[in-house]
Design a protein that fits this description.
Order of helices and strands of chain B: EHEHEHEHEHEHEHHHHEEEEEEHEHHE
CATH topology of chain A: Jelly Rolls
Strand order of the largest sheet of chain B: 14-13-12-11-7-10-9-8-15
Order of helices and strands of chain A: EEEEEEEEEEEEEE
Oligomer: heterodimer
Number of helices of chain A: 0
CATH class of the largest domain in chain B: Alpha Beta
Number of domains of chain B: 2
Largest sheet of chain B: 9 strands, mixed
Shape of chain B: globular
Shape of chain A: globular
Distance between the termini of chain A: 27 Å
Mean pLDDT of chain B: 90
Structural class of chain B: alpha/beta
Number of strands of chain B: 15
Helix content of chain B: 25-40%
Strand content of chain B: 15-25%
Mean pLDDT of chain A: 89
Radius of gyration of chain A: 16 Å
Largest interface: A-B, 22 and 24 residues
CATH class of chain A: Mainly Beta
Chain lengths: ~210, ~450
């Protein structure tokens, strides 16, 4: 049976529960070229990153893990870029997937307790990506026991249900998604449906913090 | 189809205009794309939206980028262009079937590639600058004349519907600015690091050397190296320096420039400020043009050109949000259109003429601000698309070129002279012969 549960994003951040503050490295900014104008959208205001406290032993469990995708032949780059640990902001340091709704999926190798996910779609221009949905599951086909931990797909363009989160502008800061309460899953799947500058989908890096 | 087209748009028309052309509008054009870097990708974004193009070949010395071009054409057009590293193989294998080639390589290759394709009977759309040397640009003009083929240069603003509206309707028909006495423009960008490249995607050193590059760093950052590109005044400034001359309908008589290499310490100046003096605009007025290109700060609002007159100022940019008009408070009484309300009512302009902040009652209140009307046909297209469509229309014999080599050469002359002035610190004067290629 297909079950999609939305984690309660209104819960307070993971503060006071654990001993360790999660440090996620932010690449240096490197905006290049002429930006495509961002027309008025209902955008999330820029805010400091949430403080996330996690248990000892939480690391980026996605590092070096295999990546699959709805697009078997990326237009540019390789799917391995998504988890290769290289998040330097430079042209060409991303995998580019075809237009329309596309996803990438990371196999963590085993079920993990997941506390946070960080995603960088594109870094050398400020971009708004559409239909961003992040789901967790132990089912590699994402048919059973699927948990959505983020969804800003205001018009259900990624076909994973309409989301309530606001769209956001990202560059070197990327986007940090707090998984609260923590979820158990082996697979992480991230959807998008183009961006404000073109209809393609890009990923520089995805980090999954768990143990 | 395989035919030549009509050229036009410059002060001197290329020989293509003199040839009787058969109108084959709408027929499929066989096309090659040479150079699929950042600019080639932007052109490809538009090319893939233009109907009746058949991609015969894609070419880039960097294999991942060549593959990128192929995959996009294959997936979006269901076509299978041949992939090449060397453009000479494109000519050898496909010149007879090609109607046109799009060249978006580093500047040093523009002239030899363009001349070879023209000689092989292929119409050329080549990115600006025409060349990294004035001699290379001259060769391109001569090659276009000799071949009778079309050569469009990628000053895409020459086909931008908003720029055409500004130049023809606002500045000339309704003379919105009144008498234009000064122009101002800028393109300011934040500091950016040198371009690098993904792991395991280096071009083999023997391939780099075959095409003139010392290493990957030079290949990726060619714009800043002498012998490869021309620096900021060439990469960014050329577009806008061309616009000033085109809008004013004139050529400058002198240029005085200053450049700085203190920050990046590259071959070419990262920041250039220059003043062009025009003797006679289309209004028979002298005009001073100040232009700056900065690549060490993006302050004061991006990129735009302004045309400043005694009745108002037009600021135009490829970014619609930076395009606006300001009406002078003390418009010239004799100027019939000093009241812009009728222009708003008739749809020539947009905006409420009474939207001035009522609290601002000081001696220098803000100038009243107006906007372009919405719905200018074609203004919603990607910025390179109208210029490419103009080129393909010319290949089909439907229209002239909006920026042929003769016209573009005038901009080359201005840019090279400004760069020389920045390097020598001297005010330099133009001769009429500087703008024309003899032969």
């Amino acid at each position: 049976m297909k079950r999609i549960a939305m984690v309660l994003m209104l819960l307070p951040p993971l503060v006071g529960l654990y001993s360790k503050t999660l440090e996620i490295e932010v690449p240096k900014a490197n905006i290049i070229g002429t930006p495509a104008p961002i027309k008025s959208m209902n955008l999330e205001p820029k805010a400091p990153r949430p403080k996330i406290e996690v248990p000892d032993g939480v690391t980026n469990v996605a590092l070096g893990k295999p990546v699959t995708s709805s697009d078997d032949f990326p237009l540019f780059g390789e799917l391995s870029f998504v988890t290769d640990g290289d998040k330097v902001a430079m042209e060409g340091n991303n995998v580019e997937l075809y237009s329309g709704p596309q996803w990438v999926q990371i196999d963590l190798g085993k079920e993990c307790d997941i506390y946070a996910i960080a995603v960088w779609h594109f870094m050398t221009q400020e971009r708004v990506y559409f239909g961003v949905v992040v789901e967790l599951s132990n089912d590699p086909d994402f048919r059973e026991n699927v948990v959505a931990v983020y969804n800003n797909d205001i018009d259900n363009s990624s076909k994973r249900g309409k989301g309530e989160s606001l769209q956001y502008v990202e560059a070197n800061e990327g986007k940090v998604i707090v998984v609260n309460p923590p979820q158990k899953a082996r697979y992480v799947r991230l959807y998008s449906n183009g961006n404000h500058a073109n209809d393609k989908n890009h990923y520089v890096e995805v980090e999954v913090y768990g143990k | 189809m395989k035919t030549a087209g009509i050229a036009g748009g410059g002060l001197i028309l290329s020989s293509g205009l003199l040839r009787a052309q058969k109108n084959t509008g709408g027929k499929t054009i066989n096309l090659a794309l040479v150079g699929i870097g950042a600019q080639g990708e932007r052109l490809l974004d538009s090319l893939l939206k233009i109907p009746n193009l058949n991609f015969v070949a894609v070419c880039d010395i960097w294999k991942p980028r060549c593959t990128y071009g192929f995959r996009r054409v294959f997936r979006e057009m269901k076509q299978k262009p041949e992939q090449y590293e060397d453009y000479k193989d494109v000519i050898k294998n496909h010149a007879k079937e090609l109607d046109a080639v799009i060249i978006a390589t580093p500047d040093l290759w523009h002239s030899p590639m363009t001349c070879d394709f023209l000689e092989a009977g292929v119409n050329v759309y080549c990115e600006k600058m025409m060349s990294d040397t004035i001699e290379g640009a001259k060769k391109m003009v001569l090659a276009a004349r000799k071949s009778g083929k079309l050569l469009q240069i990628g000053h895409q603003r020459n086909s931008n519907p908003r720029y055409l509206y500004a130049r023809n309707r606002l500045l000339r028909d309704v003379q919105i600015c009144g008498k234009i006495t000064a122009c101002n423009g800028q393109w300011n960008r934040a500091v950016a690091k040198d371009l690098t490249w993904p792991k395991n995607q280096e071009i083999p050193s023997e391939t780099l050397q075959k095409y003139g590059y010392k290493d990957m760093t030079q290949f990726r950052n060619w714009r800043w190296f002498k012998g490869f590109g021309g620096g900021a005044i060439s990469d960014l400034g050329a577009h806008q320096i061309d616009i000033f001359a085109w809008f004013l309908g004139a050529r400058p008589k002198s240029v005085m420039a200053s450049g700085s290499r203190a920050y990046f310490k590259k071959d070419w100046a990262e920041n250039v400020m220059c003043i062009f003096d025009y003797e006679n605009s289309f209004q028979d007025m002298p005009v001073q043009v100040f232009y700056q290109v900065l690549t060490t700060t993006s302050g004061t609002g991006g990129y735009w050109e302004t045309f400043m007159g005694d009745n108002g100022t037009l600021q135009i940019s490829e970014s619609p949000k930076l395009t606006k008009l300001y009406k002078e408070h003390n418009a010239v009484p004799s100027f019939e259109e000093s009241d812009w309300t009728p222009l708003v009512e008739s749809g020539v302009l947009s905006g409420n003429p009474e939207n001035q902040d009522p609290k601002n009652t000081g001696p220098s209140p803000d100038l009243k601000q107006f906007y372009f009307p919405s719905g200018i046909p074609g203004s919603d297209k990607p910025i390179h698309m109208p210029h490419l469509e103009n080129f393909f229309g010319a290949v089909r014999g439907e229209n002239g070129l909006n920026c042929d080599a003769e016209h573009a050469f005038e901009a080359e002359a201005m840019v090279f002279k400004a760069r020389e002035s920045a390097e020598t610190g001297q005010k330099l004067f133009f001769e009429p012969s500087d703008f024309v290629v003899e032969g």
